[in-house]
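We modelled each protein-ligand pair independently. The example shown here corresponds to the flavin-adenine dinucleotide entry; the chain sequence is given first, followed by the ligand as SMILES.
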Amino acid sequence: MTSSSQQPTHQVLNQAPPLAGHDVAADPALLEGLHREGAGWAGPELHELGVLAGSAATQEQARLANEHPPVLRTHDRYGHRIDEVEFHPAWHQLMTTAVSHGLHATAWADATPGAHVARAAKFYVWTQAEGGHGCPISMTYACVPALRHAPELASRFEPLLAATIYDPGLRIPEGKAALLAGMAMTEKQGGSDVRANTTRAEPGGDGSYRLTGHKWFCSAPMCDLFLVLAQAPEGLTCFLLPRVLPDGTRNAMHLQRLKDKLGNRSNASSEVEYDGALAWRVGEAGRGVSTIIEMVSATRLDCVLGSAAAIRQASVAAAHHAAFRRSFGSNLVSHPLMACVLADLALESEAATSLAMRLAGAADRAARGDAAEIALLRLALPAAKYWVCKRTPAVAAEALECLGGNGYVEESGLPRLYRDAPLNSVWEGSGNVTALDVLRALARSPDCADALVAEMDLAAGADRRLDNGIALLRAELKEAGAAAAADAQYRARRLAASITVLLQAALLARHAPTAVSEAFCASRLEPAAAGGVSGPGAPFGMLPDGLDLAAVLGRSGALVPR
Ligand SMILES: Cc1cc2nc3c(=O)[nH]c(=O)nc-3n(C[C@H](O)[C@H](O)[C@H](O)COP(=O)(O)OP(=O)(O)OC[C@H]3O[C@@H](n4cnc5c(N)ncnc54)[C@H](O)[C@@H]3O)c2cc1C
């Protein structure tokens, strides 16, 4: 008989305990952001969700949902088309928690100021339990502003999209307790350039349309409703397409196959064909892009929140391991170079979380008609979507390495995080497209540059490097407007990165402890600090000398033994 640490040949020593049984919401940057942005009242529910997200039982659900990916059932045993996707029970458990906490469209039905901030914080916390099921949750949240372009459809379906009951299965939408929504824009010939869509929409004469064509990516195809782009006689138009028709028969939306994806494996992403599928118009005919862009904008906020959450999750996993694992006679975290890497990850995390929560606050106030916040969001959101999502794979790789070989092994959870990490940068506008959207915002909404600079100026005088950076950015924003199109496009990633990093620095200067703000500005705004290989995109762990790393690590709350 051997104890768990006593085996016949050796003792198991020096392994970190599992990171489980903790409160994922015990995250200072998140909680302070929640209060600042007007949703402090959501704290108790956030902690309840945080404890659930950190529990061993939830971690097991996440493992099962990913190790038993969804299966497509195209036909029943008699050969009738059914076009259903079968999920492991663990997927349904994760969905039940997400929906019962209103992480989907519930905030749209809540007039309380800060409702969207509370929802954003809950999404940030719960997505750390498992990322894949966040896809239908996000799309259901995001479809509402677009759906409101068809008031009659919105009044029929919005209450069901906001209901906090998870009611899976294909049935008549109005007969269900609650609904989920997806989106289908991308076709085989292109996803960025959706104007090239070839799906046709023929008017049915009774206000409805018949859609014929295909979609190359349609995630969460077991949703009840989809916003779809198709070519109507007037041009590209947005439609609402139900999976089940009002008479109870299945709409002609046929699932061809499921994608075999790098990550996001718990979630189903399908290829679909429409063979005269019934749909209702949403918004003006011929104005499909401007209608559906409202959905895209809300999903972009979730990309930033989801990536900030992944950065936090990875940096906590690294710090936890380093607090327990020993090498060369000390805990890993006691080695100066490891402390430097961990502190750098913690800085990236605090900056990403603070910005994500500021944008959630802007979205909340924008939903209530605040013009300045609408302008800020128009520019800051695509910039942040570009930069924060782009940083996530680098953080995941570095955090994984902090666990050494253990981090490369599936059971640690880090490989799943690493595989999922690039996705937020790919969908809802891939990196280049989102960076180019920054230019579009500057060209079409001249007030957005003023809103951005006004936000940064709130930190004026706090840090010399920040002041210099803002002055340079002002010039760059002007130049971007005046430059020849090709030159402006060539520089678009640089501009999106500058906007984001300076906005992060301004937020940290105003709200974070001095040690954090100082370390962020010294490492991100002074590229010459480490012989020209520092700056915001440098590998982690190359921080300049003289920083208070103990304070940075203490602040993150990640090192407390659990
Ligand atoms: C897991 C997953 C799930 C998805 N789910 C959905 C879904 O539910 N619904 C849906 O509609 N779509 C979905 N998508 C599709 C996704 O939105 C598209 O893949 C994405 O928009 C890019 O389109 P594309 O793949 O056609 O690439 P392309 O448009 O061919 O772009 C390829 C590359 O070229 C770049 N590029 C394009 N134009 C320019 C330019 N003018 N200048 C510089 N660079 C440019 C892009 O940034 C990209 O890096 C999903 C994708 C994935 C990976």
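Residues 182-186, 190-193, 217-219, 261, 264, 269, 423, 426-427, 430-433 surround flavin-adenine dinucleotide (CB under 6 Å).
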